[in-house]
Amino acid sequence: MKMISRLLIVTLCLAGFGVYAGTPDFPHLQTTGYGEVSATPDMAEFTVKVVETTMTAEQAKQTVDKVVTDFLAQLKEQGMSDDNVSSSNLYIAPQYHYPKSGQPELVGYRASRTVNVTVNQLPDLNQYLDIALNSGINQVQNVQLKVKEQAKYQEQARQAAIKDANAKAKSLASGFDKEISGVWRIDYNAPNNQPVLMRSMAMDARAESNTYQDSTIVIRDRVDVIYKLD
């Protein structure tokens, strides 16, 4: 028991030291800066899926494979690069009926495959979606508008976050009759969230070809800063 108690005391001391070591022992203030940039999307990614249920696994496989093969062939005919298309492996699962009494009854097999497509020219998005549906694809799972120069907009959002943090720090310091004498610590984690679509996609019925209007995405960033005060 004495040994356990000593180990516990040592552990608590070390933990306390770690907390103390991470806290500045001088006057300071901490701010969080936020930045965001609005951008007009110029490309898109979408995911479609074909799902079929038949009496046998072989029938389900053949039906799904044929739909995906036809879709991929039509994409290639339209000049779509293989690098912009990826398809999943076939997934087959037995389907059962569960009566109130008795054993489950096998009623068929469900097969599915998904296809991911990157569209480098946003005006072509509707065309490729139409091709998917006409090929027998029966589910559109996700359509995401994006920008090609993501890194450029992310840098702009980051610089806006830095300016925001500095502005808040100066305002707070001035309000308490203090001055900022430097930066003690900067905490930054690259955001892993996707840009946010701020307005819904709408079709322009007046145009001869379908276009997207009022579509804006917002790219955000943040930074945490601890400043030294005089």
Automatic annotation (TrEMBL):
One Pfam family in the UniProt entry: SIMPL
Stored Gene3D superfamilies: Protein of unknown function (DUF541), domain 1 (3.30.110.170), Protein of unknown function (DUF541), domain 2 (3.30.70.2970)
InterPro entries on file: 26kDa_periplasmic_antigen, SIMPL/DUF541
Keyword entries, A-Z: Signal
Signal peptide start and end residues: 1-21
GO BP terms: DNA damage response
Domain of life: Bacteria
Record has Signal as a keyword: yes
UniProt entry tagged with the keyword Glycosyltransferase: no
PANTHER family in alphabetical order: PERIPLASMIC IMMUNOGENIC PROTEIN, SLR1258 PROTEIN
Name of protein: 26 kDa periplasmic immunogenic protein
